[in-house]
Design brief:
The chain is mostly helical. The protein has a domain of 152 residues. The chain has a two-stranded antiparallel sheet with strand order 1-2. α7 packs across α8.
Length: 608
């Protein structure tokens, strides 16, 4: 009897019990995973006794044993086991680590990789191993919940609503985590409002902070902030999951155009495996950025060891690429340790620019297949959307850099070397979307503050981690204005005609963004009246804070920690709306679209 024949007999025998057993194991998997995650939360978020420590560690070890057993059972039940291994290679790799760690703990009494991590000056090696593994299985839980035929009932929801709820879920979890005692240096945790504000700021990759991330948070708290930045910044990934989830819940693909300001439908829905590509590309860019930062950090930074240096590099790389602008240095890159660390400034600049450029543009410009195609066929060029993202981003960077150098040459730039002035000008122009600062923004002159407001208002490109109305909206409106001035029949940009629907959406985004900022700024003048009355801050500082929040930028003149509770709530809502998109919120409130085919007689009135 051959192996294949034996395997076939085994498959026939196992088939009878396969469906029932896998259904039971799925329910057990959810129960064990949730139990393990709750245990992990208590373990890392709250102080506990030695006895409690032992009990919680046992719960997590038993959960690991269940995961390994579940994977092996699925492998045995699968009719094509080798194909199953190929499809689940990462999960198999994690199982392999679990088996090695379990055997090591049984034989030697300690985990195998802990001594290795301790040699890298990472004392909490066991903690990091557990965080990695449990974090992975948290993703498995979400996948199980959203999988077709899962225990969650099929609910038909508007994709915009689902997208908003996904962000609210991330923010809520982050808030609860930051309120835990072990997350702050004081051991008391953050109060509810400040935790809510910080979680929203990190998830919406804005970067406005009410507390100093360097001293206020423990390593665990910084890990939570890093996770929130990564989850919130990769909004394209979240959006892809929402589209897949919406399709499972019965939402038609035709409704996906309501949130087209995040991604371009033709690019996003046409490629197979786009979600995986986005994840890989983003992680690779962040990894390269972390390596570069690890190499160029100034010798003046008193890292406690290699582990501290590595974590700081990863944190700032993720924060920069996701345009979050949150730094582990007090007052950002104005801190004496890094204020003249020009190479680190350039690495941050490159990461912020790539993050604000957008995944669609990154794929088009750097994808190896497209590079080879353009090399073989010189007549092929980058796509229309990529031209808008790249050229307008470069124009804004050059304009901002020149303006900053001219206006602040004898201001905040005085005393710097020529290269330092050039670096700082480019740095502050590029980081108009991220919130990193290498100068004290409160010391910048009023003319440059005004230009900053304009640059933050425009923001980054579509499908990017940047905010604002986006370069695509700005380019379409600018082209329409140019068409009106020159008397052309059609709106043209880069030898392409802009469809009236795109023009309508561009003006809608602009109008919603203007109205949103006006309403929230008006409310801030009421809630922060006492702050303005003291004379330390001006109306322009309040406007700067508001537009920075809705543009998900994070630059501030120092106003954020001084806001009243009502003011923090206003800024918090502004950050959220700016992140998910003004049109997305409008469509979510407006409900499902109803197509109408009738037309009223045309009306005419004077304009201007």
């Amino acid at each position: 009897m051959t192996f294949n024949e034996f395997r076939e007999i085994g498959n026939v025998y196992l088939y009878k019990s396969k469906a029932k057993n896998l259904r039971v194991l799925k329910i057990l998997n959810l129960f064990v995973s949730f139990t393990a995650l709750i245990t992990l939360t208590i373990y890392y978020g709250f102080p506990h006794t030695v006895h409690g420590d032992v009990n919680m560690m046992n719960v997590m070890r038993y959960s690991f044993g269940f995961y390994v057993s579940l994977y092996l059972i699925k492998f045995i039940y699968d009719f094509h086991p080798w194909e199953y291994l190929k499809k689940t290679w990462f999960e198999g790799f994690v199982m392999f680590i679990l088996i090695i760690e379990g055997a090591s703990h049984i034989i030697t009494g300690e985990l195998l990789f802990v001594p290795l991590l301790e040699k890298l000056s990472i004392s909490s090696g066991e903690d990091i191993s557990l965080i990695f593994i449990q974090g992975y299985f948290f993703i498995v839980i979400i996948a199980e919940l959203t999988r077709k035929g899962s225990v969650i009932p099929k609910i038909k929801m508007h994709p915009a609503v689902i997208f908003i709820l996904s962000f609210l879920g991330i923010i809520t979890v982050g808030t609860l985590l930051l309120m835990m005692p072990e997350m702050t240096s004081s051991g008391n945790g953050m109060n509810a409002l400040d935790a809510f504000f910080t979680s929203t700021s990190a998830s919406c990759v804005t970067g406005l902070m009410v507390e100093d991330a360097m001293h206020f948070f423990t390593f665990k708290g910084q890990i939570v902030i890093l996770a929130l930045i990564q989850l919130g910044g990769l909004n394209v990934i979240a959006f892809a999951s929402v589209l897949a989830l919406a399709a499972r819940f019965g939402v038609s693909v035709s409704q996906h155009d309501v949130i087209e300001d995040f991604v371009y439908r033709d690019n996003f829905l046409s490629g197979k495996g786009t979600l995986g590509r986005v994840v890989i590309w983003c992680l690779v860019i962040e990894a390269l950025g972390a390596i570069a930062l690890g190499v160029v950090w100034s010798s003046e930074i008193p890292f406690s060891g290699l582990g501290d240096r590595v974590f700081s590099s990863i944190f700032h790389s993720v924060s920069a690429f996701n345009n979050a602008g949150i730094s582990l240095f007090t007052d950002g890159f104005t801190h004496p340790w890094v204020s003249t660390n020009w190479l680190a400034h350039w690495v941050i600049t490159a990461l912020v620019f790539l993050g604000a450029l957008g995944t669609v543009a990154l794929f088009d410009i750097f994808d190896p297949a497209r590079l080879r195609s353009r090399l073989i066929y010189p007549w092929k060029t980058i796509g229309f959307a990529t031209k808008i993202a790249l050229y307008f981003s470069l124009i804004l960077v050059v304009f901002g850099s020149v303006a900053f150098a001219i206006l602040e040459w004898n201001g905040v730039l005085s005393g710097m070397s020529g290269f330092g002035k050039f670096t700082t000008s480019v740095f502050q122009s590029v980081t108009r979307t991220s919130g990193f600062n290498s100068v004290n923004i409160n010391s910048v002159g009023l003319p440059m503050i005004f230009i900053f407001i304009a640059l933050m208002f425009i923001g980054g490109s579509s499908s990017s981690t940047g905010g604002g109305i986006k370069t695509s909206t700005f380019s379409v409106i600018l082209s329409d204005v140019w068409r009106t001035v020159r008397g052309f029949d059609h709106v043209q940009l880069f030898k392409r005609t802009i469809h009236p629907t795109l023009r309508s959406r561009a003006y809608s985004v602009l109008m919603f963004f203007i109205l949103g900022n006006m309403i929230f700024l008006f409310l801030l003048t009421i809630t922060e009246a006492s702050l303005l009355a003291k004379g330390e801050y001006r109306f322009i500082d309040l406007a700067f804070e508001q537009i920075s929040a809705m543009g998900t930028v994070g630059l501030s003149t120092g106003l954020t920690p001084l806001l009243t509770p009502a003011g923090k709530l206003i800024i918090l809502i502004s950050m959220f709306i700016g992140r998910v998109g003004t049109l997305t919120v409008a469509f979510a409130i407006g409900g499902n679209l109803i197509e109408t085919h009738f037309k009223y007689p045309e009306g005419h009135t004077m304009i201007g």
